[in-house]
Amino acid sequence: MDIQVVRADITTVAADAIVNAANPSLLGGGGVDGAIHRAGGPAVLEACRELRATSLPDGLPRGQAVATTAGRLPARWVIHTAGPVFSRTQDRAQVLADCYRNCLAVADELGAASVAFPTISAGVYGWPTADATRIAVDTLAETPTRVGTAILVAFGDEAYEGYLRALAERRG
Ligand code: ADP
C-alpha cells in the first residue's frame, strides 16, 4: 500500500473512503466528526441513526469501524471509527491500532481503493500527536489489505511532521 501525507481539511480530500474519528454514539460531535457531518450533510447522520436503530443499539465499540454513505463529501463512503480516550481506555495502543486495522478491513469489504485518515484520538481524546501519528503509520504499513493508497491527513504542523518522521524512520 502506498502511504501519502497531506496537510488538509479531510472534508476536501477526494478518496473512495474518508475515515471519521467518531465517538461511540455515532451521533456526531466536535472536531473532525463535526466537520464531516457538516460537509456531508444530513444523509450521514441519518445513516448513523439507522445503524443505532438496527445493528449497533449500544453504539460503536472503541477500536471498531463501520461504513455509511458520504453524503455530499467528495468520497463514496465515510468509515466511522471510535478511538480510545488517551487517559481512560485500557490497552489504549492496541485499541488505536485496531481502529486503523478495522477501517482497512471495512474498506476491503467495500472495495475502496483509497482511504483518507485523520489523526484518530489526537484531538479531544488527548493522545500525544507524535505518538498517534507513529501508531497510524506503523499499523497501516503492517496490515495486509487490498487498499492501494492510504492518505494520512494532517490538520496541523505537529501531525504533518509526526507522519513524515514516522515514515522516514520506517524507510530508514
Ligand atoms: P478524537 O476525539 O478522536 O480525538 P478529534 O476530532 O478531536 O477526534 O481530533 C482528531 C484529529 O483530527 C486531531 O488531530 C484534529 O486536529 C484533527 N482534525 C480536526 N478537524 C479536522 C478536519 N476538518 N480535517 C482533518 N483533521 C481534523
UniProtKB/TrEMBL annotation:
Cited PROSITE patterns: MACRO
NCBIfam families: PRK00431.1-6
Protein name as it appears in the record: Macro_Appr_pase_like
InterPro entries (UniProt xref): Macro_dom, Macro_dom-like
Sequence ranges assigned to domain Macro in this UniProt record: 1-171
